Amino acid sequence: MSKTVTLTDNTTGKSIELPIQEGSHGPNCLDVRTLYKELGYFTYDPGFMSTASCRSDVTFIDGDEGTLLYRGYPIEQLAEESTYLEVCYLLLNGDLPAADDLHDFSRIIKEHSMLHEAVRRFFDGFRHDAHPMAIMVGVVGALSAFYHDNVDVHNPEHRRIAAHRLISKMPTIAAWSYKYANGQPFMYPDNNLSYTANFLAMMFGVPSEPYQPNPVFVRALDLILILHADHEQNASTSTVRLSGSSEANPFAAISAGIASLWGPLHGGANEKVIRMLEEIVHSDKSVEDFVARAKDKNDSFRLMGFGHRVYKNYDPRAKIIRKMCHDLLAEMGDMGADNQPLFDVAMELERIAMEDDYFIERKLYPNVDFYSGIILRAMGIPLNMFTVIFALARTVGWISHWNEMMQDPESRIGRPRQLYTGYRSRDYTSIEER
Ligand code: SDX
């Protein structure tokens, strides 16, 4: 006998049994698929705060505990032991790779890292002051015009190739977006370097002299990529799933995800956090003044990098990045000197907010974006590239969820309903009568 919840409509006295869908971890779900047919109601849930859109094995978050698992592995262990490329294999395939599997996967990703030369000319259509995220949205979407040979979304091999192409080409597109905005020559991938070192070399290398990525920065960025690789059904992943549910081209669906991530309430927050910290550092106002503004409903100012739809505890990723931030600045010494004031203000902001009833009552804690920007800034990565780095990292999460959806027998085209509050039917009037 399956477990159910009885729902009674007190306006008609009619009752129905709604099945309970049980997961392996976290809250179970009330299956409301028969609700409209049996009781004539839609569910109403703006922002989907209490709605599960799908089944998934990819990532688990416990917002109260501050837990994050990629395919069951705690983020703390992956951050300590793994590499971003190994995490890509894990998210895509469901298990950690054996040595040979990782070697083969790494070789395949290296082999796809170049872009079609016509894609290179696509950059020329952008203004030089274009935000690199705008360039990413355009260029990734344009990839759907370059791969016609294998885009049958129901063919597992075609999906695998699309996943590999996206993971391997995102660093090249990201680095070239930076180079184009700076009027510098594009650097081609160097397959002698690791995935993350290769990205730094394409970003900061120049044809006129050799460039060796700083190994401390390579490790710090690899960790940032691991922490941003996936995060369940967040806004951009849900955008990829919804656009992909119509069987659209995967490159176009990922481009839609990049567009959603760009928003300041989502992936765009890391850029906003640094602007906020810089404003505080250079302001004659105190940190307490800024916290007071964040609490003031009449002031649009919010503490960027604080709060989360799911985490009602400290974001585990923020904990890891906070320590990494501290260690990196200590290791950099004078090199990181102009970042230390930002880190000091961030820790002061965190301390004050965590003692303030407004933040405590609303369970507002630092999220992944609160400290990540300080590390990227210390590495010399410009502000407008922060969300590009987030998009680079999240590509594997997006494509893993897209791939899972395309194999899910329950998957259907996403088509939510609405609570209509507009005019009932009315008759057209001629312009003379208006
Ligand atoms: C990411 O979904 C994911 O998993 C996303 C992400 C991922 O990896 O994919 O984790 C990445 O996007 C992290 C979030 C980055 N965004 C920011 O840091 C922007 C600042 N944070 C907020 O805008 C907000 O907290 C959100 C958008 C993150 C969450 O918004 P919710 O869940 O819709 O919560 P809400 O806006 O309804 O806020 C609840 C209350 C409100 O107060 P009341 O109206 O109840 O009095 O908390 C207040 C809000 O005003 N509040 C804040 C605040 N965040 C929420 N007040 C001051 N500063 C803030 N940052």
Automatic annotation (TrEMBL):
CDD domains: EcCS_like. InterPro entries: Citrate_synth-like_lrg_a-sub (IPR016142), Citrate_synth-like_sm_a-sub (IPR016143), Citrate_synthase (IPR002020), Citrate_synthase_AS (IPR019810), Citrate_synthase_bac-typ (IPR024176), Citrate_synthase_sf (IPR036969), Citrate_synthase_typ-I (IPR010953). Pathway: Carbohydrate metabolism; tricarboxylic acid cycle; isocitrate from oxaloacetate: step 1/2. Coiled coil: none annotated. Keywords: Acyltransferase, Transferase, Tricarboxylic acid cycle. It catalyses: oxaloacetate + acetyl-CoA + H2O = citrate + CoA + H(+). One of its GO terms (molecular function) is citrate synthase activity. It comes from the Bacteria. GO terms for biological process: tricarboxylic acid cycle. GO terms for cellular component: cytoplasm. Gene3D superfamilies: 2.20.28.60, Citrate Synthase, domain 1, Cytochrome P450-Terp, domain 2. It holds the Pfam family Citrate_synt. Belongs to the citrate synthase family. PANTHER family: CITRATE SYNTHASE. This is Citrate synthase. It comes from Thioalkalivibrio versutus. The gene is gltA.
